[in-house]
Structures are given as C-alpha cells and as structure tokens.
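Could someone model protoporphyrin IX containing FE with this protein?
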Amino acid sequence: MNSIIEGIVDKTVYGHKSRTPAKLDFIQSVTGLFLALFMWGHMFFVSTILVSEEFMYDVTKFFEGSFFGIEEPLIVSGFVLLVTIVFIVHATVAIRKMPVSYSKYKAYRSHMKMMKHSDTNLWFIQAVTGFALLFLGSVHLYIILVNPSEIGPWASSDRVVSGMMWLLYIFLLIAVELHGTIGLYRLSVKWISFKNRNVRSRIKFLFITLFTYFIIHGSMTLWAYAEIGLRNIENGTVGEKYLK
Ligand code: HEM
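Reply:
Sure, complex below.
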C-alpha cells in the first residue's frame, strides 16, 4: 500500500514513474538479509560459552586478530561499526513503511481484522519488533562498540549480571528472533515464487522451527553467562579478567 502511495506521489510530483520505491525495497531486503545472517553467526559465536569459558575466550581473541598474531580489540569495534551502519540503513529505509499517524494505524488494524490473513498479522509483529529493536539494538551496539576489550567469558558475564544487561537481552533476544525469522520468511516468499500452497506452508513450518530453536539456544546462552556472572559475585571476582 505504501509503495502504491509512493508511486502516485512520484508520478504526480515528478511527472514520471520513479524507480526509487523498488530501489529502496531492494536495499531493505539486502540489508535485512545481511543482518539476519549476521545474527545466526552472532548466536553461534556468543554461545561458544556453552562449550567452555576457554573456547569463548579463544573465539574472542580470534576476532581481535590472534590469527595474524596480534591482539587488537579495535578490530572488533570496526566490525561493530560496519554492523551498526547496516542496522541504521535498514531502519532508515524500513521506517517509510510504518503507519505515520493514529488514523493510518487504525485503518491498518481494521484492515487486519477484516482480512484475518496470517501474513498481514506477521507484518504487524515485524513493525512492532522493528521499532523495539531501534532502542534495544542501539544500546547493545553502542556498549560493545566503545568497550571492545570488555568481551570475554568473565567480562561479558559481569556485564550480563552486575551490569544488569540480562533484562535488556531477554527483550532483545525475543524481538530480534521474531523480527529476523519473520523477515527471512517474508523475503523468501517475496523473491521466490511458490505456486504450490503446500510448499508455502512447509516454508512457514521451517521458519517456526528455526525461531523456536534460536529462542532456546539464545536462552541457554544467556543463562550460561548469568551463572558465571553470579559465581563472580559470590567469589568477589567481578571486574577481573579471565586468564587462560
Ligand atoms: C558486531 C556486532 C555485535 C557484537 C560484536 C556483539 C557481541 C555480543 C556479545 C559479546 C554478547 C555476550 C554478552 C555481552 O558481552 O554483553 C552479545 C549478546 C547478545 N547480543 Fe550481540 N553483538 C553484536 C550485535 C548484535 C545485534 C545487532 C543484536 C540484535 C539486534 C545482538 C543481540 C544480542 C543478544 C540478544 C545477546 C544476548 C545473548 C543471547 O541471548 O544469546 N547483538 N553480543
């Protein structure tokens, strides 16, 4: 609906049918795909804590350049900056699809009730979680960006418990998994044509399974950091660095 309005505006104002809406749609898809795939990678790197503290430490050092024989946390900051830029571009192009006034929001809700179409409801969940991610994601990205040397089995756990980040992470995890999985589902039905209805419902089932898996996986990871953070409080070792 928004792209139809954009098209009409382009035609009336500029006198021709602009390609801008299609370009913006493409940018939104590419940046969304990048972020969703990054999140899968992120979940696995962060969850190395489930294997052992030592393994998570080694992975942290790998991202600081241990592979090239260096130890430079700024490399992590550079990577966070890249993800942050993609995050901002994605949010900027996506925001044009949000209802911009209460009357537009009401019109959308009554449209939703009338249609009773599950994919339209998914759009609504994605808009709400996307809005939440603007705040939740920004806090996390900024903290990691300016504290690249404070990533590790103990430093991360202290941030989760003593730094009270567990509360933010619970909401962030739910929002990012809902947003990312619905986004990937919508991307797949948008760019790949499924003539067969059966295939579409199988794809839906696959994404529901993925969502459930990542929520369980993420919760276990968060719990592992929380346990270490609590242990550090008990041992009076909060703020100390893990040493191999
Ligand atoms: C390059 C960018 C990023 C880096 C280096 C990074 C790094 C980390 C690290 C080290 C942790 C462990 C806890 C801690 O140290 O505070 C963590 C946790 C977490 N991060 Fe990120 N993060 C990045 C981007 C993101 C983004 C864009 C999101 C979502 C919008 C996100 C969502 C989460 C969640 C939900 C957790 C909690 C752990 C879990 O439940 O699995 N991160 N991140």
